[in-house]
Amino acid sequence: MKNTSELDKSGISDLAIYVNIPFCNSKCHFCHYVADIDSRNLVGQHNWYSEYVEAIKRQILHYLPQLTSDGHQINSIYFGGGTPTALSTEQLIDILQVIESNSKPSLHFGSVTLETTPENAPHHDFRALLDAGFNRISMGVQSMDNNRLRMIGRSHCVEQVQKAIEIFWDAGFTNVNIDMMFGMPSESKEEISHNLEKLVALAGNHYSIYLYEPDPRTVMAKRCESSYTTEDLYSKFDLVLNYMENAGYEGYNCFYYANDNSRCDCDDIYYNLGNDWIGFGAGAHSLLQQCLYRTSSDYKHFIATPLTIGSPIPARENAIYLYMTSTYLLYSDKGLNLNQFERMLGISYQDALAMSKELQLWHEHLTTEGNLVLEGGHWRFRNREDQIRYICHHMERRFKHDILKSQQFAQPYAPLSSK
User: Fold this and answer.
1) For a surface tag, which of 52, 113, 147, 152 has the fewest beta carbons within 10 Å of its beta carbon?
2) pLDDT, tens digit, for every residue of 204-239?
């Protein structure tokens, strides 16, 4: 990274923080976030936890005081992974307190999210976590069917999900997100409907319901059938959308549903390029002053050399990033904001089209078909149906190219994914 003394001092600007904890209870068969980490380095590495926490604290202390003193205000904090609650309550609070004590002049944060899993919940003091400053929980459930949970490599059962929700409510949390996937191999629409019914009964105020995306590096991708088609995926997507909206949840991103004004600000930051973010920990990404950074995903290497977030790569020079970011921005109901695109990435969308052949071909296809329209300085899909059909077609195309042909696709330099 640039020396912190070289960072822009042009005034107050918002900054999101992502803390990556690359440890889990088990390696799920579908998860591409840790696909490149060997199971032996992901699960049961308790002897490394203390050293990892100390390394993250050193990294935060190295960067954050300068960023905040130069006018950056923290507007969102997200602890993701991996499974952050693989760490102890005390370790999680320790990291958050280092952030809070080095975030002047920031006085108020937005959401402070902690990812967890149902089986981890009973082992933590969530009242203490709430008192320390965490105010939002995001729990990965993925399915409400025990047979499916076993098939996809999850280490919890449905009964633990309800117990975890009760733990969060009893501790005083009022903002709880629940993750689910659909479109998994051999999953019927009846199974999806059953999952949604049980999911809504949990009474979360925010749901992230993702379309399963096969990744050739994962076990589950090999189980996908040739029937993984646009039409099949679209019918399941349509089922989810209609069910959730009929249940009173507003769909504001292709995969996110909220009630009572519970939209997640950290998701809005990444999917709408709302502001800069810095990622702490092994494998974390950052976007700072129009430059991309990525810390080494090897946590043992990170522990040895924590005082770096990687070398800067100007976003305007990374054609793949420009292409992938453009596709992600269209997942949002706000669409691709041309002014925000240029402000955050240092290149106009028109110039990005000229630079990135992938982006140019993708844009020409969508505009020629009439799916993409320009309204008020935003490129967005003509309607929700076109948006969903595009995503399903994109999934099918990647499946046929990457899975059926057993070709490993290049990893996109995508925005930080929240759960």
Assistant:
1) 147
2) 899 999 988 766 666 666 666 656 788 999 999 999
